[in-house]
Amino acid sequence: MYAVFKRELFSQLNSLMAYITIGVFLLAAGLLLWFFPDTSILDYGYAELTGFFSLAPFLFMFLIPALSMRSFAEERREGTYILLAARPLGDWQILLAKYFACLLLILFALLPTLIYYCAVSQLGMPKGNIDTGAVTGSYIGLLLLGAAFAAIGVFASSITKNQVTAFAIAVFTCFICYMGFDAMSQVFAIRYFETALLALSVNEHYQSMSRGVLDTRDLIYFISFVLLFLTAARLAIGGRKW
């Protein structure tokens, strides 16, 4: 499994696409947080990173599908999955190796954003006047959100051999899972329907963690969400004659 994980990670790092995607993510986040007047932290006047954690999910909707779209689609297009499947590895081992490689790339993309925390902490009056607990909870929520979107991306890649199609399916599914249930809860504004739809919303659980409160219900939700899409991906790759 480690060999497949290392192969997948180095394959991503050796391609220009990963660097371009992560670079665009960091550039977009930097411009939105520091330069654009409507979203600038400098114009906001408070030492907090609420703007970043509100914008990051929408950037993730494009970043993560771009990183995960070649997981299985590229293998199918080039016919190399036959060689991979011939190794003494189960479908779950291959799937998890590719999934964890994608998660590590997401972590690489998030690490430079810690500079924002350091900068806002120094700009605060007095210095260090920032809610570290809320920022920590928000980063944990963002990592769990990235894990959920990565599971969607790997699933989308497992059902097609076209990377563009996998990217489009993943972006659409991420958007529906993040915003769709919230919108439906407004349409079906009946007490029980609204509560049930909000309980299914990724955004609702992410916002809960962004407040700095680590609730076991949110953790269970994200773990279940990841397992659901990884199981669907396992069924997709196991039900085909490669």
TrEMBL record:
Pfam families, per database record: ABC2_membrane_2
Keywords: Cell membrane, Membrane, Transmembrane, Transmembrane helix
Topology of this chain in the membrane: Multi-pass membrane protein
Transmembrane segments: 16-37, 49-67, 96-117, 137-157, 164-181, 219-237
Keyword Cell membrane part of the UniProt annotation: yes
Subcellular location: Cell membrane
Keyword Transmembrane applies: yes
GO molecular function, one term: ABC-type transporter activity
Superkingdom field: Bacteria
Matching PANTHER family: MEMBRANE COMPONENT OF ABC TRANSPORTER YHHJ-RELATED (PTHR30294), MULTIDRUG ABC TRANSPORTER PERMEASE YBHS-RELATED (PTHR30294:SF29)
The protein's name: Protein involved in gliding motility GldF
